[in-house]
Amino acid sequence: MSGPSRTNKWRLAQEKIIKESEQNCMERVYSSIGNSSVTAIHQKLDNLSSRLSSLESNVANVLAVVKKLAVNSKFTASVEFPVENLSSLEEINKKVEEDSQRYVALLRSTLMPEGVIKNLGRVLSLSLIMDMNYGGTFSKKGLNSFESLNSALYEAVKRDGYTFDDYKRDVRLAFSKAKNKVYKRNTELNKQKQQQIETIFIKEDETEETITDEGVKKRKKKKTIT
After folding, report:
1. Domain co-membership, 137 together with 63
2. Residue 82: which region, alpha, beta or left (left: phi > 0; alpha: psi -120 to 50)?
């Protein structure tokens, strides 16, 4: 009994040692896997943090550019343009003289790409256009007398091969087109008014004729009865 008992004990001890060895190996494996996973996660977090920092920097740069663009945008231009009257035009001319580069950018964003022929009304109000022309002829105020603004307008629309004479021709044409639209519209309105007046007169005449005809009929009827 003592022999087999000792054998069993020995076998049990061996099994225990084997189990402990296996358990230790598994713990070491799990520990190794866990450490590598944590290291990989840390690396990914570091990369993500770096990317976020780069993104924040890019966003800051974009915002700075947007602010600069806002200063030279149509939204800023719309506050000062179109100019409504001559006194405001004189003030704008002084501002352009003090900061021509800024106003060239403003006018370029306002006029281009179509140019001054189509978009002069974005710079000068229609009432002001009607009171002006380019050269100051026919007792009109000339745009060319506002030298700083006039020069800025040319710089705003200037392109390769585009001369100052080309610019003057285009501005004169812009004045002419804008005024012709007003004249044409006024003519059409006057024509409509005239047609309305004639229609009223015709209706009045028809009413008078109807009343006269009825009076004649009544008199004839009385004579017949008599």
Report:
1. no
2. beta
